[in-house]
Amino acid sequence: MDKFERTNEQFEQAVAECRSLFEKKLHDYGASWRILRPTSLTDQLFIKAKRIRQLETTGLSLVGEGIRPEFIGLVNYGIVGLIQLAKGYADTVDVEPEEAMNLYDSYAREALSLMKRKNHDYDEAWRSMRVSSYTDLILTKIQRVKEMEDLAGQTLVSEGIDANYMDIINYSVFALIKL
Fold first, then answer.
1. What is the torsional sign of CA 146, 80, 96, 102?
2. Residues whose CB falls within 8 Å of the CB of residue 41, separated by 6 or more in sequence, listed in order
3. pTM here?
4. Cβ atoms of residues 78 and 170 within 8 Å
5. What's the CA gap between 34 and 99, in Å, rounded?
6. What was the pLDDT predicted at 53?
7. Nearest CA among 82, 75, 92, 97 for reference residue 30
8. Would 134 disulfide with which of 14, 26, 167, 171, CB 3.0-4.6 Å?
9. How far is it, in rounded angstroms, from Cα 170 to Cα 113?
10. What residues have CB less than 8 Å from 129, skipping those under 6 apart?
């Protein structure tokens, strides 16, 4: 197995872990995330990334949960963000679990496809990076999304919010692989 195949396999395993949790929460809560407006979703991503950074900086968790669950949350909320961008937010839960899982799988495949292309071009550079660098890059991406939301989409050269969500997903998966 070459290095790219190994990465693809590890990526798929990490996403399967995230998907499993997403599916369980979907069972327990339904698609309650459908009511999240874009800015609220961005703030949820921000909270998770800031907590990771705090744990990396201090090494202290008063609630007893580590970094790994937060990166899983970033993957799942990143995919929710892509769904919300495509469907818009709703005032009520308007997605059945089967449709939610199909959407999840579609965006997870899209993230994997993007990762494969970028990983080829960057020749596995992510493997030499520190997990704390992924955290900082994720926080940067979230800040960019906040700026784009504040500009109401009137950007000049931005790749768009969806591209930032994809990068958040992929950096989070890399962190899960490395952890």
1. positive
2. 33, 77, 80, 81, 84
3. 0.94
4. no
5. 12
6. 96
7. 97
8. 171
9. 10
10. 174
Angle at 93 between CA 92 and CA 94, to 5 degrees: 100
pLDDT for position 132: 96
What sign for the dihedral angle of Cα 85, 38, 140, 47?
negative
Could you identify the residue written with the tokens 């089967």?
98
Q: Are 114 and 148 spatial neighbours (Cβ–Cβ below 8 Å)?
A: no
Q: Give the residues of the chain that fall short of pLDDT 70.
A: none
Residue 5 burial class via C-beta count within 10 angstroms: exposed 0-12, middle 13-18, buried 19 and up: exposed
Nearest Cα to Cα of residue 56 among 119, 127, 138, 118: 138
pLDDT of residue 36: 96
Contact assessment for residue 52 and residue 77, using Cβ atoms and an 8 Å cutoff: no
> Structure tokens of 165?
């969500």
The set of residues, in sequence order, having a beta carbon less than 8 Å from that of 75 and lying 6+ positions away, is 14, 15, 18, 169, 172, 173, 176
Q: Is the CB of residue 34 less than 8 Å from the CB of residue 95?
A: yes
How far does the chain reach from its first CA to its final CA, in angstroms? Answer: 21
Residues 19 and 143: their CA atoms lie apart, in Å, by 26
Which of 64, 80, 65 is CA-nearest to residue 18?
80
Residue 171's nearest CA partner among 126, 112, 104, 118 is: 126
In this structure, the dihedral spanned by the alpha carbons of residues 60, 63, 69 and 74, taken in order and rounded to 10 degrees, is -90
Q: How far apart are CA 100 and CA 83, in angstroms?
A: 9
